[in-house]
């Protein structure tokens, strides 16, 4: 049996936005249950994100280490960023983030995996790309600030990332999901079987 997520929307009888932040907000929906009862559901409204597992010619992944205040930890991550523009092509956003955070470009792009980070409490959707044929980007480095000004960059083998995720030593969602998805692809039908970089994304529709 093939299992697959399907669209569905239960009736919303009332909605409110008690908090609006710089990039995200919190919404409260009154949702009608199948039995007719009504309950409130609070969740974060998020523009969506992209992340990039960039693989160099030696099979190493570009990672960065950044302080994340909500969890009070400095986490190893892969380059990632918000879809700042409604309807933005996620590939273009990913190429921008790879340049800004790692100052590299890639010639070969594939969709690695699409995920909802926390569907019980947020509508954030993330598309994780696989980027290969890496080379240095032209021009000056992008000027970073705040937490990004303190980032460290490294290149680590895929095997080490998978080991660290399974050992409970690496916790970033995109890093863990990306590394495990690539390992699964390599052990299965191979990279050529991955979806193309412009594959449709119903969670965040975009223009070509």
From TrEMBL:
Keywords on record: Hydrolase
Q: Where are the residues of the annotated region Disordered?
A: 1-22
Domain Nudix hydrolase stretches: 44-178
Gene Ontology terms: cellular component = cytosol
High-level lineage: Bacteria, Bacillati, Actinomycetota, Actinomycetes, Kitasatosporales
Record-level Gene Ontology MF annotations = hydrolase activity
Pfam families per the UniProt record, alphabetical: NUDIX
Cited InterPro entries = NUDIX_hydrolase-like_dom_sf (IPR015797), NUDIX_hydrolase_dom (IPR000086)
Q: Does the keyword GTP-binding apply?
A: no
Identify the SUPFAM superfamilies for this entry: Nudix
Q: Which GO terms describe its biological process?
A: nucleoside phosphate metabolic process; ribose phosphate metabolic process
Name of the protein: ADP-ribose pyrophosphatase
Q: Which organism is it from?
A: Streptomyces violaceusniger
């Amino acid at each position: 049996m093939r299992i697959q997520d399907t669209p569905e929307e239960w009736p919303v009888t009332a909605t409110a936005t008690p908090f609006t932040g710089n990039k995200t907000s919190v919404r409260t929906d009154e949702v009608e249950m199948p039995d007719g009862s009504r309950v409130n559901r609070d969740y974060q409204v998020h523009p969506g994100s992209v992340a990039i597992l960039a693989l160099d010619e030696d099979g190493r992944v570009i990672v960065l280490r950044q302080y994340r205040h909500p969890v009070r930890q400095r986490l190893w991550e892969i380059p990632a960023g918000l879809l700042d523009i409604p309807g933005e092509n996620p590939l273009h956003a990913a190429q921008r983030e790879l340049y800004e955070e790692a100052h590299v470009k890639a010639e070969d792009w594939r969709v690695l995996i699409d995920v909802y980070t926390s569907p019980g409490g947020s509508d954030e959707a993330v598309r994780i790309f696989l980027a290969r044929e890496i080379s240095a980007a032209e021009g000056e480095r992008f000027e970073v600030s705040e937490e990004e000004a303190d980032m460290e960059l490294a290149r680590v083998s895929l095997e080490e990332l998978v080991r660290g995720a399974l050992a409970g030593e690496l916790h970033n969602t995109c890093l863990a999901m990306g590394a495990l998805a690539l390992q699964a692809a390599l052990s299965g039908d191979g990279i050529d079987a991955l979806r193309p970089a412009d594959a449709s994304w119903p969670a965040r529709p975009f223009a070509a």
